[in-house]
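Weekly modeling sync, notes
Attendees: S.R. (lead), two postdocs, one rotation student

Agenda item 3: backlog of single-chain predictions. S.R. asked that every request posted to the team notebook include the full sequence so nobody has to chase files. The rotation student volunteered to paste the first one in as an example of the format we agreed on. Action items at the bottom.

Example entry:
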Amino acid sequence: MTLMPTIFALVDCNNFYVSCERVFNPKLCGKPVIVLSNNDGCAISRSNEAKALGIKMGAPVFQIRDLIKANEVQVYSSNYTLYGDMSQRAALSR
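Predicted structure, as returned to the notebook:
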């Protein structure tokens, strides 16, 4: 009997929290989107469009408030229950 080797893969989902939000709200596609930290203090996930505007990882919201307003950046509070569920789905869909 031949044993099959165990294969592991590391999957990096780009802008994961933003991507999760876009699954349930496709109108966000192509728009700048950020997801904020626990207390809505800092940007912890940024779409490519938000990155192109110069929004940095960990940027405090109070420092980028004008940029958000001027560019109609869509802002979401983090939803770790959703992200955990989506992460499990990605891990199980092999």
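Discussion: group reviewed the output briefly. The chain is about 40% helix and 15% strand.
Action items: rotation student to repeat for the remaining queue; S.R. to check formatting next week.
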